[in-house]
Design brief:
The structure holds 2 protein chains of 2 kinds. Chain A is α/β, with parallel strands linked by helices. Chain A folds into 2 domains: 86 residues, Elongation Factor Tu (Ef-tu), domain 3 (Beta Barrel); 159 residues, Rossmann fold (3-Layer(aba) Sandwich). Helices cover 29% and strands 32% of the residues of chain A. Chain A is built from 9 helices and 16 strands. In chain A, strand 8, helix 3 and strand 9 form a beta-alpha-beta unit. By secondary structure, chain B is α/β, with parallel strands linked by helices. Chain B contains 19 helices and 15 strands. The chains are: A alpha/beta, B alpha/beta.
Chain lengths: 272, 464
């Protein structure tokens, strides 16, 4: 059992939680993830580690499925049944001079420790935070604390530039030659478009892939992704990969294979 | 042996009935049946069955005690060598071990040792006979990585020798392949839980959600005062066919399919949070126990046509004979000498498997006739395909332990005392041999405990 030490909400869908988990905290680095089960009958869900504070692990999650909604009902002092990690490969912090991070929605959570690592290494860092509305642009203050530039985009124009993250990224890549690396974390469709744009402008790009996982330790093989025609397991080889040769269409199809069943789960949540 | 009665068949659930449930297929002997079968044992002076058992269970002795109604003693005789009798009685490949060596098998049928072990094991479980006093802790800490058969056997043996034993398990439940891999209809999960509880009662500490190499490294375990470490992390990484179309949706590795059903309790959608999506036509690739388990599980989940694709012939099937018979009784179609070469789909979901018809050639290094291509092909319509052609050791420990030597295929290299290239770190079971059987892993775990004990005694003799 893992105790919830602290919790806050960014908006009606997104929470931040601090969970006591010394075995996860001990060796965790940016890019690692955890797998948790909310209760004894729970499914195993992967979440990227947003930060470490002593024996405690920070997670940020969007309450969009059955299990994340159930997690959202837990409060400070409650416990989570299972919480295992750090899993996956730590993010590869490359030798770059000016890195621009692109985050869609809760993607800003896993992006934060990575960009911070680049900053600590002496790189200039900029970020584009995209969200549906103003409320869905999260961690703005945290980024402002260390980023050289923070750009905001919203679908409805309620904050920053109206439009998608790519609308903000394109002119930056066109005008600023010092930007030599892009990191994109968010929905697969967003990472696909950002990757295409980075390729067009001849910049390197890293993405963080989130296929369906069960054990998260290389056992089930559900999380396989194709990169440059070779198969990798996102749980042990990733979740971060160079974006240029990722087969994003395959990833989207594999993610959607259980969509009907996820829908059924949400119905069950409504019934309760 | 003229008056010898024939081998007594174990009662089973009818195939038509069991196809609709996950209850155990083999129902086991009653006391009368067990004693009737036990009478067939001729009590060899030099029992070949014992030699053929990886953990050397004193088979004639426990059978004799059973006949004498000394059931408690019969259980203790087995338990002395085998801490998981109820499990081994169910899943051991007896035909290639104890029963394969039974002298009766030369002219007639061997004694049904597996069913007798199961009977006595279950008797002991019901009467809680495993709950016996163990030595107090000698204060020496040892760590066991993995709570599958190798780790459990190793931990039990070390605890009996007085060590302070902690088992680290990566998943949220203990038992390894006994929990995530082998289905309930072959091994009910409460039996596994019971055997694990016995180890807890012995004073073995269990830590779940601990991925060694990630959560704690081998070096960190040493820093924490674990003086010797046993790696029994098994073979959990699935092998792929390496053919086009393997990443289409609807293509499962047996590990994923069985983990969803066994560990995550996937049954009917939408009742399970981790469901498994299965259509009417399911192909399973492979001829081992895991392939049989996957095929029979698919049938129970409602698939109408389940067939096995195996590139060799029937006599080469590595699965237990019982499981092959059970699968066929349950309507699983064995399509032998057929090798998948391509998977094709629509909208990225698998729809067809193309197979090449094979023929048999000269024997290969395994002694079985090598399958050769014929250039003739066939195509089957499918909704799912489950790949079950073997597993390799998981790379996490290897990748995160400096100086740990491994084979090119990932197996950990050990010396004649089961020590790895890292001092004080031992290994055994599938992580050393590649995917094998429950009992071989148990044997390796038990033997390693002996070597670890010797190592620790020497070490303490030197320092004291």
């Amino acid at each position: 059992m893992y105790k919830i030490v602290d919790k806050k909400s960014y908006n009606q869908d997104v929470d931040w939680m601090l969970v006591e988990a010394p075995l996860v905290a001990r060796n965790a680095k940016p890019g690692h993830f955890v797998i948790l089960r909310v209760d004894v009958d729970g499914e195993r869900i992967p979440l990227t580690i947003a930060g470490i504070d002593g024996n405690n692990v920070e997670i940020i999650y969007q309450k969009m499925g059955y299990s994340t909604k159930l997690l959202g009902e837990k409060n400070v002092g409650d416990t989570i049944e299972d919480f295992v990690g750090p899993l996956g490969q730590a993010a590869h912090i490359r030798d770059k001079k000016h890195v621009i991070g692109v985050a869609g929605g809760v993607g800003s959570a896993p992006l934060l420790p990575q960009l911070r690592a680049y900053k600590e290494q002496g790189a200039k860092v900029s970020v584009i935070l995209g969200g549906r509305t103003k409320d869905y642009v999260i961690l703005k203050k945290e980024y402002e604390a260390f980023c050289d530039h923070v750009h905001i985009t919203t679908d409805d124009g309620s904050a920053g530039q109206k439009g998608f993250v790519t609308d903000a990224l394109n002119p930056l890549l066109e005008s600023d030659d010092t930007i030599d690396h892009v990191i994109a974390i968010g929905p697969v469709i967003m990472m696909k478009f950002v990757t295409e744009m980075a390729k067009k402008h001849d910049r390197s790009i890293d993405v963080s892939l989130n296929p369906i996982m069960i054990d998260g330790t290389g056992m089930c093989g559900n999380c396989r992704v194709t990169i440059d025609d070779k198969t990798y397991f996102a749980c042990i080889d990733g979740p971060d990969f160079p974006g240029e040769h990722v087969d994003f269409d395959e990833l989207m199809s594999r993610q959607n294979f259980y969509k009907d069943e996820e829908h059924a789960c949400k119905l069950r949540l409504k019934k309760q | 042996m003229k008056n010898m009665k024939p081998r007594l068949k174990v009662r089973e659930q009818e195939a038509v009935e069991r196809n609709n449930n996950f209850l155990e297929v083999a129902l086991g002997y009653s006391l009368e049946e067990a004693k009737q079968e036990a009478l067939r044992c001729i009590q060899c002076k030099n029992p070949r069955c014992v030699q053929a058992c990886p953990v050397r269970v004193k088979i004639p002795e426990f059978i004799k005690l059973l006949l004498e109604d000394a059931l408690d003693e019969s259980f203790e005789t087995i338990y002395d060598d085998n801490i998981l009798p109820s499990i081994c009685g169910r899943v051991c490949p007896q035909e290639s071990q104890c029963e394969g060596a039974c002298i009766l098998g030369i002219k007639a049928e061997p004694v049904n040792i597996g069913a007798l072990e199961r009977f006595v094991g279950d008797y002991g479980m019901d009467k809680d006979l495993a709950d016996k006093p163990v030595p107090a802790s000698n204060g020496i800490k040892v760590a066991v990585v993995g709570s599958g058969p190798a780790g459990l056997a190793n931990a039990a043996s070390l605890r009996r020798k007085g060590y302070d034993v902690t088992i680290f398990e990566a998943l949220h439940d203990y038992g390894g392949v006994l929990k995530y891999g082998i289905p309930d209809f072959r091994l009910p999960k409460d039996i596994v839980t019971n055997e694990i509880d016995n180890l807890k009662k012995m004073g073995v500490t269990f830590v779940k959600n601990a991925v060694i190499g990630k959560s704690i490294t081998i070096d960190q375990l040493k820093e924490e005062g674990y003086e010797s470490i046993f790696i029994g992390s098994g073979a959990g990484l699935p092998s792929s066919l390496g053919i086009p179309g393997e990443n289409l949706s609807g293509v499962y590795f047996a590990n994923e399919f069985l983990t969803r059903v066994n560990l995550m309790k996937a049954r009917a959608v939408p009742d399970s949070l981790t469901p498994v999506k299965l259509g009417d036509n399911v192909a399973v690739v492979g001829g081992g126990n895991v392939a049989m388990d996957a095929a029979r599980t698919a049938k129970r989940l409602g698939a109408k046509n389940v067939f096995i694709l195996y590139r060799r012939d029937r006599k080469s099937l590595p699965a237990r004979l019982d499981e092959i018979h059970h699968a066929e009784e349950e309507g699983i179609d064995l399509r032998l000498l057929q090798n998948p070469v391509e998977l094709t789909g629509e909208d990225r979901i698998v729809k067809q498997v193309k197979v090449e018809i094979m023929k048999l050639g000269e024997p290969d290094s395994s002694g079985r006739q090598r399958p050769l291509p014929t250039g003739k092909y066939k195509t089957y319509d499918i909704d799912n395909i489950i790949i079950s052609i073997g597993q390799k050791p998981n790379p996490i420990i290897k990748d995160n332990t400096a100086g740990l030597d491994t084979q090119p295929w990932g197996g950990i290299i050990t010396d004649e005392y089961q020590m790895t290239s890292v001092e004080g770190v031992f290994a055994g079971g599938d992580v050393v041999t590649g995917a094998a059987t429950v009992i071989l892993a148990m044997g390796a775990g038990k033997d390693a405990a002996h070597h670890m004990d010797e190592y620790l005694k020497n070490k303490h003799a030197r320092t004291s």
